[in-house]
Every structure is written in C-alpha cells, then in structure tokens.
Amino acid sequence: MKLAYYPGCSGQGTSAEYERSSRAVCAALGILLEEIPDWSCCGSTPAHACDHVLSAALSARNLSLAAAKGADRVGTPCPSCLANLKTARHRMEDPTFRGKVNALLDAPCPDTLPDTVSILQVLVEDFGVDAIAEKVKKPLAGLKIACYYGCLMSRPADVMNFDDPENPMALDRIMEALGAEVVPFSMKTECCGAAMGIPRRDISARLSARLLETARNFGADAVVVACPLCHMNLDLRQDQASKASKSAFNMPILYFTQFMGIALGLASEDLGLGKLCVSPTGLLQKMQNAKAAADAKAATDAKATTDAKKAEAKAKAAKAEEGQA
Amino acid sequence: MKLGVFICHCGSNIGGTVDCAAVAKAARAFPDVVFATDTMYTCSEPGQDEIIATIKEYHLDGVVVASCTPRMHEPTFRRTLERAGLNKYMFEMANIREHVSWIGKDKEANTNKASELVHIAVEKLRRNVPLFSKSFESTKRVLVIGGGVAGIQAALDCADAGLDVLLVERESYIGGKMAKLDKTFPTVDCSSCILGPKMVDVAQHPKITLMAASEVTNVAGYVGNFTVTIKKKATYVDWTKCTGCGACTEKCPAKKTPDKFNEFVGPTTAINIPFPQAIPKKATINPEFCRQLIKGKCGVCAKVCPTGAINYDMQDENVIETVGAIVAATGYDLVDWTVYGEYGAGHYPDVITALQYERILSASGPTGGHIQRPSDGKEPKSVVFIQCVGSRDKSINRPYCSGFCCMYTAKQAVLTKDHIPDSQSYVFYMDIRAPGKLYDEFTRRAMEEYGTQYIRGRVSVIQPDGKGQYIVRGADTLLGKPVEVKADMVVLAVGIEGAKGAAKLAETLHISYDGFGFFMESHCKLRPVETNTAGVFLAGVAQGPKDIPSSVAQGSAAGAKAIGLLSKPMLESDPQISVVDIKRCVGCGKCVKVCPFQAIVEQDIRGEKKAQVIEAVCQGCGLCTATCPQGAIQLSHFTDNQILAEVDTLCRC
Predict the structure, then answer these.
(1) Interval B175-200 mean pLDDT
(2) What are the φ/ψ torsions at residue B343 (nearest 5 degrees)?
C-alpha cells in the first residue's frame, strides 16, 4: 500500500513521537509513506479562523504538490491538518471559491485534487483491524484503555466521511485488536479545550480535567488519543488540569500509534515513549506483570498437567508391578 | 345532441385569474353546445338548481361543469344530473381550478387554457353514452385488522349493530399498545382497567370471531365481497384445550427468552402468557427459544399441562374468509432511536424508551410496578425525560410530530413523583403540544403540583460519568444557556411510525401509504376514515399519530362507515369497467395476464377462445385496454374513441 504523506508541523515539534511512531507502525505493516516534497504548513487554526480563502490556498499548495507526484490520496496523522486539507478540497468544489484560491497560488491547482485520509482511517479501513490483530506480538493484555477521539476526527460528518460522528469506534476497535480492554468512555468526542490552552488556560484545564476524571471513573489505566493538540492538553498540561480540579491525575496519555508499536513489538526509541510527560512506566509494568502472571499460570497449569501425567504413569507402573508380583 | 356548459368562478378561486365569462362565451361556439354560462358557486344549492332548470328548459342531453377537481365534486354534479332525470354518466368535468387558476397568474393564458379544457370536455361528452350500474349482494361481515383499542372499538360497534365481525390480530393477545400502558392521561386512570372490560366484551360477543396470532396475507375481490386469506401462526399450543392456567410458564426452563410484551425490560419464559389480563388468555411458545423446538429435548410444558394442549408439531395454517368491508387498524411501532449515537445508540442500560418505562411503572410489569433502573435495580432519584426523540427531526427523515408524547411524558413525570416522592424529574422539550380536552391543565399540574422541571431545549448528548450516573447536556433556549443535569435514568419519548409490515399490508389491501408507513385517507379533511379503495376503512394510529380518545373515535367512525355500507340491501356496481368486443377478440390471452385483479378469464364461444370480463371484479384500471393488440377490450366511459377525441381536440386548439 502506498500513500502520499503529509506529516504536519506539530509532528516536527510537539508531537514528534506521534510522527515517529506513525512512520514506524506503517513501515512495520508494509504501508509505504511518501512524504510530499517541499510541503508547507496547512495554516492550522489561525489561518481558517482569519480567512477561508487564504487557509484553502495553503492546503491547496500541498495537495497540488501531492497531485504532481501522481498521488490520489494523502495521509496525515494530525486531525487538524486533515480537517484543513479536506475542508479546502470540499470548499473548492465551488468554482467561485476555487477561482479565488487559484488567484493566490503560483499556478492554478489541477482539476482533481487528491483526497486526504487520516492514518487512523487507513489503518482501520484499508489495512483492517483483523489484519492488525494478526500482527500483534505483545498483546496489551491487562490494560484498560479509554479511547478519546476529540472534536475533529469524524466531524463535520459530511466532510470527514469517517466513522460515527457522535460515537466513533475506530480507536476502540484497534485497541481491542491489540488485546486491551476498552472502557465504555462516554466523552469520546468532547472538547479538550483545543487551542484555548494559550489564551484561556482555565478553560482548557477545566475541560481536560473533566475528560481525565471520567476516564478515571471508568477505571482506565491510560487514555489513547489521535490528535497532537488533545495530547498536549491531556499530557503536557495534566498538572494544570489536576490543579483546576483539585485532584492529582497520573494518567498516561499515549498516541494510538505508540500503543500499536508496543503491541507490534517495535523498538521503544522508534515510538518516542520517552517524550511523554506522564510516564508510561507504570503502565508498561502493569502489562509485564499481567504477562508474567499469565505465564506463571500457564506454567503452573502445564506443571499440574505433567505432574498429573507423571502420577498416573507411576500408578500404572505400580499396578503393573503389582500384577507381575 | 344538446349540451350545456357551466363555468364556475369558485368565488375568487377561479374568477380571480380566469375570465369565466369569456370562457362561457367561447364555449357557446363549441359543437352541440346550446347553452353556456358562468356562475359564482356552481356547487351551491342555487348553482345546482340552475343546472337542473337549464337541463329542463333546453332539453339538454349532457352537461359540462368547469370548476374544481372531479375528486371533489364529480359525485355532487352527477347527483344533480340524476335529479334532473339525466343519466349521471352524461356529465364531464373540466378542472380549471387545480389545473389552471391555482397554478398560473397570467389571466389571458389561463382563460385560453380553461377554454381548451372545456372544449376537450365537450368533445368527450359528445361521445358519452348512458351507463347503468348493476346491483349485487354483499356479505354482511366485517374484517377488522388489528386488535388495538381502535380495532376493538370498530369491532364492538359493528357487532353491536348486528354485523358479524372477524377480528384479526398479529400478536397472541389483543389490546395493542394500550395494553402495555400503566396509566392514561389526563385522568391518570389505569389503562388495563378501562381497556380490560372492552377486551372481555370482544371475547364474549357472540358476533365477534377473534383470531389472535394471525395475519392477513391476501385480499381478493371487491367492496361487499372480499375474499381474505388469513395465516394462523403456529402457537404450538392447542387453544381449544388451553385454559390459561399458567402451569407451563412456571415450569418452563428457558427463562431467558426476550419479553416482547414487556418491551424487553426483563426476560420471560419460552412458553408464556404475556400478561395476567390477556385476551385470549392462552399460552404461546416462542419457537426461537423453546428447548424442545430448538434441540428436541425438554418437553416440560407438555408434561405439566393438565389438558394436553401442547403440540410441538403445530404448523402455520391458512384460512380463507369472505367479508363485505375491511377496517385496517394496525397501529404503530417506535422509530428506531438507536440511530442517535449521542444518546448511546441503545448501549446505555438506564437510557430507556417511554414504552419501556410504562412497563416498569405497571404493577403487572417486570418490576411489579416499582421503579427500578435496569442496570442495578436501584430506585432513581433524578429522572430526565427527553421529548421528540425521532419526532420533528428532518435529519432522520421523521419531520412530523408524534402527537401524544408531550402528554405521556407529563403523565410519566407525575407518576415518577407519586412512586418516589423524593425524586426530581426534568423534561427537555421543544414545544409543549397539549391541545386536547383537559390536556394543557394536566401539563401545568405536572409542573406546578409535581415540581417537574421543564427545560425548553434539545439534549445534545447523554454521557455516563463512570460512577453510575448519566450527565445529560443540553441547551436551555429560554435562558440562552447550556445546561447539565445529572440523571440516574433517562426516558426517551421515542417517536412513532406506521407498524412494521404496514406497507406490505397496504399493498395487499390496494390502499395508499406514505413514506412513514401510515395509511392514506381518501381526503385529509372530509374523508378521514375512507380509503381510495371502496369498502376499506381506516382506524387509529395506522392512519396517523393520535392518542387514545381519537383512536377510539376513529374506530367508531370506521365502524359506522362499514355499518352504513353493509346496511344497504344491495350494492351498486360501477359501470366504468372493461367490455370485450367478441367479434374483434382473437383470444390471445394478453389481457388475462396483465389484469391485476384476475377479472378477465378465457371463455369458449363456439370453439373459439375469447376473453370475458367478470364485471363484479373489474376495477376499471384500463390495463387490458392498453394491452389488447386488437382494440377489442374497451373501458366504458374511457373508450379509445373518447380519449382520442380529447387528444384530437387539444391538438387542434
């Protein structure tokens, strides 16, 4: 499977571990990512908040570059980039809008621009959950995980065209395929505060705290995310959420690609686990303990069977001896 | 031939955009027209009297009225002609209202078009001949389909009037949705206490034959003489022997059978009697869960049955019955609310439908009338009601109001407070629709005396908080603020649609239905219980959302229509049917194949095969006429010559 790849700016900085683990997982599964040459920023939140045409032009430039390389689809890990790239293409179906965008570009973009998909969608729909399950080497047995999708991944529904906008299941299905127990987390698509963390830290702290508290109520050991900004609010700013809600959270927040990497047995330096603010050590320990317990049980069971067999053989031999005597 | 033409102004309805006097003037130039005039209201008494007087004065042979749609007043004017001594088929109508004045603003163009339509009608009328009905006997027996409260009322009224009634019910019991309700608004009286006696009346009425666990699968024939095929579904219990003692239900080991009557709130047994007051009080085996029927091992019920009524080999059985009229009262089902992911898509145990809540409230329900949450059996202290779940929602193609949810929600809030005095109920609503007698007063009582908090706004999401409660988040549009309520239980006022299978039944009955499974009445205001198929009437929610009093009223109305129809000693046949010209017929048999009513048979005339129309069965659809390669079958009143004359006139205009 081949895919034009748009890493996005946050992948170069704050979410480098998401970027790195996405590449590692795709490589391990045989999905070839071809980075778009000379890609530029999609404009992120500021661009579309100021000017739709300008924002679309930034996305259109990247999509044109991908089209020039013959790509019919672009994959990106970041939902915010995804939303911008997809929305730009959607808006440019209107010829007037398209004209305005083309006026800003060095050259008008081609008639058909490639569609954009999230790496999550590629893994769930193209590669397939069953195929992922087959590749698992170290199951996430014993872990309870809350799946948090954020606002953007499946919404607006008619643009994103992916999963259920109110009750998405993609992450749930992947985590189950990896052997984890998925808790019935009810705030899958609630807002974490997003970019409000900069102008109004109190808002993002309050909203993030609510997510963390609900995940804890459901007994989650960790929260899995698919968005750099969600990750920042829940992981980097977890202390702020703790202070805002007067509770001490210690909830590891991992990207789904990191969990996948762990389960596929990839090297931890490829997954960037060391970049996480809330340490996943306890989590990994719990996984190992669960495995050790399972192994021990298996060993005891096996020993019990061998012992039973031995005893049986002994008894038989004794009987035979008796018979001879 | 002498013809008269009357152009109706219909007040300003037609006169506003059509020059009626000019149309009348133009009509005087059409062949055979000896009189033409314009009148203000042709359908009024003076208007009709004028037609009669003119017929007599000018010795007219036929009349054209240019006014509204023939669906509205063709029968009216035909009667006028009969009163004047003319054959009623010597009449033609030109629709210059719906087809002209209401759809165009250009007066000149409208006037031209109206003149052309009148010209067409005149040319058709010149080729009309008097037609005569034949009379035939009808079967004095009524089929009522659906044993809910509407069907029960229709059955009882017909039976009391002396007609034999066949009441067919799909489930194993009658009572329909009303039998599942705990109390009824606005009086809060017990549903089964007011419905129960009516159900008993049905069972005991000597004129009513009750066929429960049965379905109508085919309807042939015509008004007065329908031949109906009814499938009696296998219940695996011989109801002639079953006494309803319940010994089998106590011993049945398949105790995890889904309980449809209790809306799946709790489990039941594979053999069961749905509720204590069930009519008929007979046991039925659910074959999907009966161990004997699945695995061939068990047979406990057969062992304990004191009358030997259990029969595991029972098969479905088809019965054929003849009836003169049919009342369709098939009721409703709930909209599939699991499409709402934001309400948990059916995965949250304590988010239930209002109908499930009725079963929880009911003393004969799975919790014995104690309000308990399905998840842990605890008594909820905070209950949120959400209205319009699947009603008035274009996004799921259910744009209509389900009619009675506002009222039962108020009732359920009142009952919640009665059961649990320290509880608090919240109702999220769009508008409170309480237009019935004592209805608005009742909703006010729920608010003012029972302290129910009414919040005007929609709920955006229900979220379990992980500690056993649900966060209900919505908008209070009166305050203009978002609100959050912590709830122990959420009750959804789920909207309704036509009963499952209603569309199929409508096709069997040859009646129309809408996109939501509701049957179409003949006229939404003036013929609300009739259908466009003679002899088939509608009652209850099958026709559209309505509450119990309206359903009962419509049941009585449909019953009265059936009684009226069958009280005539003889019925008149419609002479607008196909006629075979034996000389032209080559016996190819194509008409026999296309006839949707099996009204054409082959006959042998002097060794030659010829088509023959069974007059009583022919519905006058005209398929055979269009199919016949020889033009040998002609539809009376719509012959090829008549239609060609109309087309010809239009082409020459």
Answers:
(1) 96
(2) -100, 15
β-bridge partners, B135 = B572
Q: What is the pTM of this model?
A: 0.82
Percent of chain B with pLDDT over 70: 100
Q: What is the pLDDT of residues A73-94, one digit of tens each?
A: 999 999 999 999 999 999 999 9
What is the four-CA torsion angle of B523, B528, B534, B539, rounded to 10 degrees?
150
Q: Which residues pair with B537 in a beta bridge?
A: B327, B530
Query: Tokens standing for B426?
Result: 């919240």
Confidence of residue A311 (pLDDT cuts 50, 70, 90): confident
User: d(Cα B287, Cα B270) in Å, to the nearest integer?
Assistant: 7
Query: Considering only CB atoms, which chain A residues are within 8 Å of B463?
Result: 186-187, 190, 214
Q: How many Cβ atoms are within 10 Å of B433's Cβ, its own excluded?
A: 20
Q: Do A219 and B461 touch (CB under 8 A)?
A: no
Whole-number Å distance between alpha carbons of B9 and B106: 16
pLDDT tens per residue, range B615-652:
878 889 899 999 999 999 999 999 999 999 999 999 98
Residues paired with residue B94 on neighbouring β-strands, in sequence order: B66
Strand stretches in B457-500, DSSP E? 459-464, 470-476, 481-487, 489-494, 496-498
Neighbours of B253 (CB within 10 A): 11
Sign of CA dihedral B283, B365, B279, B504: negative
Contact B43, B73 (CB under 8 A): yes
Rounded Cα–Cα distance for residues A286 and A293 (Å) = 10
N-to-C CA span, chain A:
73
pLDDT at A325: 60
Model pLDDT, residue B633: 96
Contact criterion met (CB < 8 Å) for B466 and A186:
yes
Band (B597; pLDDT cuts 50, 70, 90): confident
The answer to whether A144 and A183 are in contact (CB under 8 A) is yes
Whether chain A has a CB inside 8 Å of the CB on B465: the answer is: yes
Cβ atoms of residues B350 and B375 within 8 Å: yes
Give the whole-number percent of chain A exceeding pLDDT 70. Answer: 99
Q: Which residues pair with A117 in a beta bridge?
A: A75
- The burial class, CB within 10 Å (0-12 / 13-18 / 19+), for B205 is middle
HEC readout, chain A: CEEEECCCCHHHCCCHHHHHHHHHHHHHHCCEEEECCCCCCCCHHHHHHHCHHHHHHHHHHHHHHHHHCCCCEEEECCHHHHHHHHHHHHHCCCHHHHHHHHHHCCCCCCCCCCEEEEHHHHHHHHHHHHHHHHHCCCCCCCCEEEECCCCCCCCCHHHHCCCCCCCCCHHHHHHHHCCCEECCCCCCCCCCCHHHHCCCHHHHHHHHHHHHHHHHHCCCCEEEECCHHHHHHHHHCHHHHHHHHCCCCCCCEEEHHHHHHHHHCCCHHHHCHHHCCCCCHHHHHHHHHHHHHHHHHHHHHHHHHHHHHHHHHHHHHHHHHHHHC
- Which residues, in sequence order, are CB contacts of B216 under 8 Å at separation 6+? B143, B145, B168, B228, B229, B230, B231, B505, B508
B507 to chain A, any CB pair closer than 8 A? The answer is no
Q: Which two tokens stand for residue A89?
A: 């293409």
Contact (CB, 8 A) for A177 and A205 = no
Strand arrangement, sheet containing B317-323: B214-222, B225-232, B317-323
For B238-261, how does the pLDDT look when each residue is reduced to its tens digit (9 = 90+)?
Answer: 999 999 999 999 999 999 999 999
Verify whether the Cβ–Cβ distance B463 to A190 is below 8 Å: yes
Return the residue in B337, B338, B463, B469 with the most chain A beta carbons within 10 A, the one to mutate for interface testing: B463
Terminal C-alpha separation, chain B? 22
Q: A217 and B347 in contact by Cβ < 8 A?
A: no
The reply to whether residue B466 touches residue A190, judged by beta carbons under 8 angstroms, is no
